[in-house]
Amino acid sequence: MTDNTLIFPVLTHLFTAIVSLFFWQKTVSQRIISIVGSAVAMGLSIELFVKVWTGGILTLQAAGWDAPFGISFVADVFSCSMVLLTSFSGFAVSLYSATGIARARMLYGYFPIFHFLLMGLNGAFLTGDIFNLYVWFEVIIIASFVLMTLGGRKAQIEGSVKYMAMNILASAFFLTGIGILYGITGTLNMADLSLKISALENRKLVDITAIFFVIGFGIKSAVFPLYFWLPSSYHTPPSAVAAVFGGLLTKVGIYALFRVFTLIFIPDNFLSTLLVALAIFTILTGTFGAVIKNNIRRVFSYLIVCHIGFMVGGLGMYSEIALTGALFYLFHDILVKTNSFLIAGLIRKLRGTMNMEKLGGLYAEYPLLSLLIAIVFFSLVGIPPLSGFWPKIYLFEAGFMDRHYVLIGAIIVGSFATLYVIANLWAQVFWKNPPETPGDSPLTDDFKPMTRFRKALLVAPIAFLAAITLYVGLGAENITLVVQHIAREMKDPSPYIEAVLSKNIPQ
Amino acid sequence: MNSSILKTASNYLLPILLLFSVFLLLRGHYHPGGGFVGGLIASIAFVLHGFTHGTDATLRLLRIHPGVLIPVGLGLAALSMFAPVLTGQPVMTGLWIEEPLPVIGLIGSALFFDLGVYLVVIGVVLTILFTISQYSE
Q: Topology in the membrane (chain A) (predicted)?
C-alpha cells in the first residue's frame, strides 16, 4: 500500500531544521522549535507504528517511479519500531539540550544540525534501497561530525579525527560492496536484490561481497577489531550529543547489519561462524575496556561495544529465537544507552567531573534522583524483571539449542562484567563518601543554583526514558509480541518483497 | 587587487555571469546544467567582484548576508518536494503546469527544487569564502 505518511517523520525533522535555521542566533526560539518539532515527530512515529502494526507493511515509491527502478521507502514493523525508538530518544535529548548544551554551541547551529542528524537516522531506517541507505549514512556522518566538533576543544577535535577517519573508511567499504552488488545483480532495490542474490550460482562471490558489508557496517557499529574509535571519541562531545551517538548512531549500523543479512545475504555456515566469532571478541574486548576505565562516559562507551556484541551474536546464530533476543536487546539498548549518557551529563552538572574517584555521596544529597538513576542502571545490568533481563533468556535459549557454548560463555562474562562495572560505579559515585581532598579542582555543583524549571528540563527527559524502559521491562510480553513478529518477518522476507515489488501506485 | 583591467572587467562580468548562471539553471532539466552548477557560477561572479572591490563592497552590493540564502533555498526545495503530498501523490512527484509559458517554457515543481539548490549553493559558497577572506584581511 502506498502511503505518504511513512516519510513524515523524515520531513518533520527536515522542516524543523530549516525553520530553526531561520532563527539563527536566536537560541530561545530554536529551543522551542526543536522541542515542538521532536514532539510532532514522536506523534507521527507513534501513528506510523500503529498503522503498520495493524495494517501491514507500508511502501512509498518516491516520485511515483516503480519499485526496482525508483527509490522505495518501506515501513515494516522493524523499521517503524526503530523510528519510534529514535523519536523517543530524540525527544528526550532535545528536551535535555535546552539546558544541557552551552549557549555558545547553540549559536553555532546545534539545533539545526541535531535535527538533520535525526532526519538522517529516520531516513536510514525507512529506505528500501541500498544506495539510498548509503546516502542517509552520509547525511548522518556529516551531521554527527559537526556535532562532535562543535565547540572546538582540543579533545573534541582529536576524537572527531578518529571518528571521521574510521567512518570514511567504513563508507568506502560499504560503497565498494554496493558497487560489486550492482555489478553482479544489476539492481539496488533491497527487495529485488533479495530475489536476485538467492538465485545467484556463484556463492563464493556472494560471500566475498557480504564481507564488504560486514566490514563497513562493523566499523560503524563498533564491532571487533575496528571498535577503538568509539571509546576514544564518544567521551569528548557534550553529553546530549554523546547520548544520541551512544544510543542511536551505532545502532544504525546494527540495523543495517540486520537488514542486509536477513534480506539480501542470508547467513550461511561461513557468515554465521564469522558473525558469532566477531561477536565473541567484541563482547570480551568491550568488557575488558569497561572494567579498567575510571571516567563514567568512557565506561559507558566500552559497555556500548560489549553490548553490540550481544546483538551481533544473536544475528550470527540466525535462529528465530536468537533474532528475537537480539532485537529485544536492540530496543532496550537504544533507550538505556541514551539515558546513561544523559545521566553522565547530569552527574557532571551535579559535581563538575565525571571521574569516579573524585565523585561520591550523591545518594545522601539527592536520594530521589538516585532512585531514578538506579532504575536505569538496573535495567542496563538486566536485573529481573527489568528490560535487560528478558533478551538474554532468548539469547541463552538460542545458544543452547544451536550449541554456541563459547558465545554463551562470552555473554555470561559480558553480563557479569556489566554488573560489576555498574555496581562499582554505583558504589563510587552514589554511596562512597566524597573524598576529603578532591585534588586540584574543587567540585562544583551547577545544579543547585538552577531554577526549578531548568532542573525539570534536565531531569524530565531522564524520567521519560526511564519510564519507557520500565515499560519495556514490565510489559515485556507486549514487546516480545512485536519482536517475535519482526523475527518471523526476517526469517521469511517474502511479505516485504511482495509489498515493495507489487505495482500498487495510485492513479 | 590593484589591476584596473580586472576591476573594470569584473564590473561587466558580474551581470553576464549571473545571466549565464540563470541560463544554466533553466537549461538543467533536460541538458547538462542545473541548480548546482548555476549556483557555483553565480557565486563565482560575486567572488570575482569581491576579489577586485573588496569583500565589504560585495556584501554591500548583496544587501543581505549570503547565509540567509541557505534556509530560504532549503525551504524552497523542501516545499517543492512536499507539494505533491497535498495533491495525494507520492512525495517528490513532479507537478507540471498544463500550458508552457512564453520564453521560459514548461514549468514544474522540479524547477523550484533546482532554484532552492541554486540559492543554497550561492549561500554556502559565499558564506565560506567571505568568512575566510574576512579573517585573512
A: Multi-pass membrane protein
Taking the C-alpha atoms of residue A15 and residue B73, their distance in angstroms, rounded to an integer, is: 12
Of the partner residues A21, A62, A505, the one whose CB lies closest to the CB of residue B91: A62
pTM over 0.90: yes
- In the predicted structure, residue A503 carries a pLDDT above the cut 70: no
When pLDDT is averaged across residues A333-342 and rounded to a whole number, the result is: 92
At residue A227, the pLDDT reads: 84
pLDDT for A469: 92
| Domain span at B38 | 4-136
CA distance A200 to A198: 5
Q: What element of type H or E holds A74?
A: strand A72-75
Reduced to 3 states (helix: H, G, I; strand: E, B; else coil), residue A439 is coil
Q: Is the pLDDT of residue A353 over 80?
A: no
Q: Which of A18, A64, A506 sits opposite B75 (nearest CB)?
A: A18
User: For residue A75, what are the β-bridge partners?
Assistant: A58
User: ipTM value of the model?
Assistant: 0.89
User: A2 pLDDT band (50/70/90 cuts)?
Assistant: low
One-letter amino acid for residue B103 of the chain: V
CB contact under 8 A, A61 and B90: yes
Query: Closest approach of chain A CAs to the CA of B91, in angstroms?
Result: 6
Chain B within 8 Å of A504 (Cβ-Cβ)?
no
- Best B68, B70, B80, B91 member to test A by mutation, with max A CBs in 10 Å, is B91
DSSP B137: -
pLDDT in tens, A234-245: 888 888 899 998
Distance of alpha carbon A371 from alpha carbon A366, whole angstroms: 9
Q: How far apart, in whole angstroms, are the C-alpha atoms of residue A350 and residue A459?
A: 12
| Structural domain contains residue A304 | yes
Number of domains in chain B: 1
Q: What are A282-327's pLDDT values in tens digits?
A: 999 999 888 888 888 888 899 999 999 999 999 998 889 999 999 9
| Among the listed residues A363, A197, A218, A216, the one whose alpha carbon sits nearest the alpha carbon of residue A267 | A197
C-alpha A368/C-alpha B12 separation (Å) is 72
Is A63 within 8 Å of chain B by CB? yes
How many other CB atoms sit within 10 Å of the CB of residue A195?
A: 17
* Cβ atoms A13, A116 nearer than 8 A: yes
Please check whether residue B77 is in contact with residue B116, taking contact to mean a CB–CB distance below 8 angstroms. Answer: yes
In a domain? residue A398: yes
> Is A472 in contact with A332 (CB distance < 8 Å)?
yes
Report yes or no: A449 at the B interface, CB cutoff 8 Å.
no
Whole domain around residue A457: which residue ranges?
267-496
For residue A382, the 8-state DSSP code is T
Please count the structural domains in chain A: 1
pLDDT tens sequence across A264-283? 888 888 889 999 999 999 99
**Residue A203 CB burial class (10 angstroms; 0-12, 13-18, ≥19):** exposed
